[in-house]
Structure formats: C-alpha cells, structure tokens
Amino acid sequence: MTTPLLSVSSLNKRFGTTIACDDISFDLWPGEVLGIVGESGSGKTTLLRSIAGLIEPDSGEINYRATGGEVDVHLMSEPELRRLQRTEWAFVHQHPRDGLRLNVSAGANIGERLMANNWRHYADIRTEALKWLAAVEIDEARIDDLPRTFSGGMQQRLQIARNLVTSPRLVFMDEPTGGLDVSVQARLLDLIRSLVRDLGLSAIVVTHDLAVARLLSTRLMVMKDARVIEQGLTDQVLEDPQAAYSQLLVSSVLQV
Amino acid sequence: MSIEPAGCRDSGYNFAYLNEQTKKMIRRALLKAVAIPGYQVPFASREMPMPYGWGTGGVQVTASILTPEDVLKVIDQGADDTTNAVSIRKFFRRTAGVATTEATAQATVIQTRHRIPERALGPDQILVYQVPIPEPLRFLEPRETETRKMHAFEDYGLMHVKLYEDISQHGHIATTYAYPVKVEGRYVMDPSPTPKFDNPKMDNCAALQLFGAGREKRIYALPPFTSVVSLDFEDHPFQVQAWEHPCELCGARDSYLDEVIIDDKGGRMFVCSDTDYCASRRMAASEAAE
To answer: What is the ipTM of this complex?
Structure first.
C-alpha cells in the first residue's frame, strides 16, 4: 500500500463564469472510503463526475492505478475508459432511475454488466443475479419484475447490486441515500458498509448528510464554493472541525 | 415460369425514376457499405412516390443498381402476387422498362420485404431488402449518438440483455424476426424483419445482399460469402422455427410456412410462404407424374 489507487491533482472545472471545482488535489488509498461533504452547489457532484470520467475537467490530472498499470483518466481513449467503467469501476447515482434500465427486469439489470463483460451462459448469469438479489436483501421471486414496480429503497439496492456484480475495485456514490426515508436509509447504509468491508472496495461517497459520511467514510473532505476547505480522518473532522464552515456544518446537524 | 420481356418504359422518366446524381450518391453509400459489412452508412434518402414503410429504401437501392439488362423479381413476405410486390414490379417496368419475373432462378435482382427465397441464390444475383428500422439496439437504447458509439466501440453487451429478457419471460428466445446477427465477427446488424428462419441463409451466401432503410436514411450490406452469426447463449443456442406438418400444397418440409385461414369454422392450412418455390415444386411433381 505504498501508492495511491487514485490521485487527483489540480483539478479545475468551470461552467461559463461559475467555478465548480477550483484547484482540487487529493489521493485515494486502496481500501479507503472517502467522503465528500458540503452544501448544495459546492461542486461535490461535479468533482465526482469529473473523476469518474463522466464529464471533462478544464485542467488537472486524474491518475488511476488500474490492474494493467497507471492511467490518466482523461487521456485514455473512450473505449478504454468505457471498459474501465464497466469492469473496475462502478457509479451509483443519486436517483436509481438514472442508473437502472427501467424497461428490463431486475435480473437483466444485474446481468447487463456481466453480459457486457462477455458472459454468454444464461444459467450462470441467472445464478449470479439471484445471488446478488439476496445480497442486497431483495426477494429472489422478484427477479423477473420490472424495477419500476419496486419501492425507492429497493430500486436503490438494485442499483447497487447491478454495480457491484462485476466486483469493481472503485465505487463512486453520489448521494446514495438521498430521497429515502430514515429507516430505509439506515438499512441501506448498513448494507453498503458491510459490502464495502467484505469486498475490500475503495469508494468515494458524495453526500450532504454528515451522518452518512460518519457511518461510511474513513476520511472526509469538506467542500465550499468549489474548494476543499478541510480534510482529515472522519472522526477528527467531525469532532474537531477547524474551518469556520466545517464548524457551522457540524453544529447545524439536528439533534434528536 | 416465364419472364415478362423488357421494353415498356415510359420515356417521361429518367431510367429507374431517380436522377443520375442521386443514383451516384446511393452507389457511393453502397460501395462503403459493401466495404464495411454490417455497418450502417447514412445516405440522403429521397422522397419516393410511395409512403414510408412500403419499401422506399429498397426501391432506391434497386433503382441505383438496376441496368437495362436486369431481370427483376419483387417479393412481399414470400409472395410475388401481393400488393406491395406487384406495385413495385410495375413501378420499375414503367420507369426502367426492365424485364420482370416471378422465378427466383431467372432473376438477377430480387427486392424483398422480409423473406429470402427458399432456392439458394447464386453469385450473379443481388438481393435487396426493404428495411424499416436498421438499428438493432434501437429499442434498448433510444439515443442514436449512443448506439453509434456502441457500434464503434463494439460495446454489444446490451444486445444480449434483450435475449436474456426473452428467456426469463418465455423460457426460450422468443424473438422470431429481426433476430440480431453478428457480421464477420464485428458489427451487430438487424437483418430487417426477416423471420429468423432465414438467418442461416444470409451466412456465407453467394449473392450480394443490400439493405435500404428509406425513412431512417441508412444503407448496409453483406458482400458475398460473409460470415453472419445469430447471437445466442451457450445454454440457449440459436434455433429456427419448425413446423409439424409439411406444406399442404407442395409437401415441402424444408420451407417457411404461412398459416392460411380457409373458412369461418376454424379451418386453416399451412402453405409455403415462398410462392415461386411452392409453384415450381408442384409443377415438377405434375411433370414427373405424366
């Protein structure tokens, strides 16, 4: 564990005159879960999407240590990037509808990544899909149902299963629990945490919810106005915030 | 089986209706399509004197490759005598003055909607398909920008999602027409709404096969002796349809059968969809009996 899995340096992205990411640099180490917190519009999601190769940053380098050697995400050819995105990486969208194929069954949603990686044996794909439905606590009898008949929490779990089926090394999550009620949130967080631990994944989790960050992440970055204003171990940042905005953020969590 | 001779061309039209510039443009698209088997080449499809869906793409391809010496056959499903086939044949008799025939063996150009003739095609023949939707990924991925990238990157996992859905819902691959194929191990192609029964005939075929989609403005092609493999799963291999009974008119067991309702009491019969194949078998049988 001497080299980082992912290394971001001097990343900049602006939309017209709006600056979304201003000179952001950080490293992600293998097996680490990095939380990115901050208020709406602080550039968290733009940062995540730039790293995942979904949007092109204006400048900066993103180096990823792939199994085949180190690559710069934005200098790769598009077919190579797509191969990375469907094998070693996974992206869990905030809205399951963005990450699922709603007009095909749950089984096909899970199987899609397998088929994209040249699985051509129906029974094997089926077995794997059933295994993953069980892993994310969805009734196996629902394998042939369309995701639109699922509840919001089930859709989100299905999206996670669909992403993790090819055992990625790095998972990007954009507000994975946004829009879910608290009890469903708690179970989903529990599930993500155990999957991440069992599979030894590295992950970057964007959230505005400090509770989510505390549960999932080992390290935390706080963003405000397109800049990283503070980073450190999660407990350290949450217990002893240094920057004024971090202090405000921590103190504004509702206590029940 | 006879040939209706050439020579009743209406001199008010340019040869084969289209002007020479348009034919040149379509031939260029055809050359590119032949050079990259299975790749969909965009072309500037023209308004034709027929509605979309009636074969405007096929008609433009036929018009571009037709020569005065050609003998044209047109089939709709397998039949030479249905409205679409008769109209297109008449159209080219009038605008190009070419000879026409119903006999597969005598034709040099065959335009088809759906079926491939049962009789094996030869190297001196060209088969032109009328295609409604050329994009095999269309119903899985509606964005054309995305499907073109998927073709370019050979990113075809999605095609198997459709076959997976078939098996999970029906227990077997229930797609019976427009069954996706892989051409020369590279491009995934929609063989137009031909029944999957005809997919094996496309593979390693001696004739040149051209596909024209008028509304979608795409041309693609299979040069002679091109490998065409129907997609499937290892444990659910590709299979063609089979019928329990032979054709009730000619007794053929190897042809694609149409179900024909013959009364209002539930009576029905199965007959060859390829009318020329059926008629020539019956003629051969009656000659042998004499």
So the answer is: 0.86
Each residue of B191-234: pLDDT tens digit?
Answer: 988 999 999 999 999 999 999 999 999 999 999 999 999 999 99
**Amino acid (one-letter) located at A162:** R
The answer to whether B203 contacts chain A (CB < 8 Å) is no
Measured between CB atoms, does A126 come within 8 Å of chain B? yes
Distance from CA of A205 to the nearest CA of B (A): 27
Q: Out of B38, B57, B212, B214, pick the active-site residue.
A: B38
pLDDT computed for residue A33 by the predictor = 92
Nearest of A110, A189, A199 to residue A153 by alpha carbon: A189
Q: State the pLDDT at residue A192.
A: 85
Q: What is the dihedral of CA A175, A177, A180, A183, to 10 degrees?
A: -150
Q: Contacts of residue B149 in chain A, CB cutoff 8 Å? A: 78
Interchain CB contacts (distance < 8 Å): A and B: 58
Rounded (5°) CA angle B25-B23-B225: 85
Predicted TM-score (pTM) of the model is 0.89
Considering chain A, what is the average pLDDT of its residues?
Answer: 90
Sign of the alpha-carbon torsion through A86, A88, A94, A96: positive
**A218 and chain B in contact, CB less than 8 A:** no
Give the per-residue SS3 of B201-223.
HHCCCCCEEEEEECCCCEEEEEC
Is B8 catalytic? The answer is no
B237 touches chain A (CB under 8 A): no
Nearest CB partner across the interface for B153, out of A82, A107, A117: A82
Chain A CB contacts of B160 below 8 Å: 115, 120
B108 or B53, greater pLDDT = B108
CA-based nearest distance B155→chain A, Å: 7
Cβ A43 vs Cβ A21: under 8 Å: yes
Q: Given CB atoms, is B233 within the 8 Å cutoff of chain A? A: yes
Given this model, what pLDDT does residue A255 score?
64
Given a cut of 70, whether residue B33 has pLDDT beyond it is yes
Q: How many CB atoms lie within 10 A of CB B81?
A: 12
d(CA A90, CA A169): 8
Query: Each residue of B133-156: b (16+ CB within 10 Å) or e?
Result: ebbbbeebbeeeeebeebbeeebb
CB contact (8 A) between residue B149 and residue A120: no
Distance between CA A165 and CA A107 in Å, rounded? 11
How crowded is the C-beta side of B182, counted as CA atoms within 13 Å? 13
Active site residue B205: no
Q: pLDDT confidence of B1, banded at 50, 70, 90?
A: low
Residues of B in contact with A112 (CB under 8 A): 157-158, 161
- Provide the CA B133 distance to its chain's centre, in angstroms: 13
Whether A141 has its CB under 8 Å from any CB of chain B: the answer is no
Per residue in B58-85, pLDDT tens? 999 999 999 999 999 999 989 999 999 9
Q: What is the pLDDT of residue A224?
A: 92
